[in-house]
């Protein structure tokens, strides 16, 4: 496929067919995704490939904590898990929030689930002393994650970048025997899409790009 076509049609896929994603195709996806940039070219990525259903069910159960708060805050008119706006949902409201079973469906119906981790011993977090949520170290892992999704699209497969499980990272690490110095960055269900997106909708460039300053003239 043309690169720009891949970029414009790689949407979030949560509904999959029963088609398998063979190991040789998965290896090809990862083989191409590995050329993503990382800080200092240290390549601190680690991918855990999950096919066993019981492990995937356990991982899905660990997504409930993050999802419950997300749903509760959304229903309360809040920005879910927003780092600037403290949660207004009460403990009672949170406990009473049901999480639909279909939340974990992509983890069970996809052909494979990838858990993508990054070695914190090799990232450069230049924003670690700033008074805000850290973002910069993600530059050493999320380009790889996006490359996986682009490569999957090129192979006729699809997936979605999920992070709900990270709210229970300690338990995820115990489940998958992830070392302490590694962070869980993403969980990617991959498979053959039931319906392939042919066109994505995004804001025009003029709405998010400005010249010379944040409040400068639109590009």
Automatic annotation (TrEMBL):
<comment type="similarity">
    <text>Belongs to the nitroreductase family.</text>
</comment>
<dbReference type="GO" id="GO:0016491">
    <property type="term" value="F:oxidoreductase activity"/>
</dbReference>
<dbReference type="InterPro" id="IPR029479">
    <property type="entry name" value="Nitroreductase"/>
</dbReference>
<keyword id="KW-0560">Oxidoreductase</keyword>
<feature type="domain" description="Nitroreductase">
    <location>
        <begin position="12"/>
        <end position="191"/>
    </location>
</feature>
<dbReference type="InterPro" id="IPR000415">
    <property type="entry name" value="Nitroreductase-like"/>
</dbReference>
<protein>
    <submittedName>
        <fullName>Nitroreductase</fullName>
        <ecNumber>1.6.99.3</ecNumber>
    </submittedName>
</protein>
<dbReference type="Pfam" id="PF00881">
    <property type="entry name" value="Nitroreductase"/>
</dbReference>
């Amino acid at each position: 496929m043309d690169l720009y076509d891949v970029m414009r049609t790689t949407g979030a896929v949560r509904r999959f067919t029963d088609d398998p994603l063979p190991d040789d195709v998965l290896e090809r996806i990862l083989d191409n995704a590995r050329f993503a940039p990382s800080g200092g070219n240290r390549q601190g990525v680690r991918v855990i490939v999950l096919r066993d259903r019981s492990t995937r069910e356990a991982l899905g159960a660990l997504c409930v904590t993050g999802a419950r708060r997300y749903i509760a805050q959304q229903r309360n008119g809040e920005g879910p898990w927003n780092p600037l706006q403290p949660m207004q949902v009460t403990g009672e409201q949170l406990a009473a929030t049901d999480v639909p079973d279909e939340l974990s469906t992509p983890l069970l119906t996809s052909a494979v689930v990838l858990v993508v981790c990054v070695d914190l011993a090799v990232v450069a977090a230049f924003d670690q002393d700033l008074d805000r949520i850290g973002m910069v170290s993600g530059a050493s892992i999320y380009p790889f994650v996006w490359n996986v999704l682009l490569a999957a699209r090129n192979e006729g497969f699809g997936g979605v970048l999920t992070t709900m499980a990270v709210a229970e990272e300690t338990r995820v690490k115990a489940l998958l025997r992830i070392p302490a110095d590694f962070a869980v960055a993403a969980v990617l269900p991959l498979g053959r899409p039931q319906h392939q997106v042919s066109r994505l909708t995004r804001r025009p460039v003029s709405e998010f790009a400005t010249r010379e300053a944040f409040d400068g003239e639109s590009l």
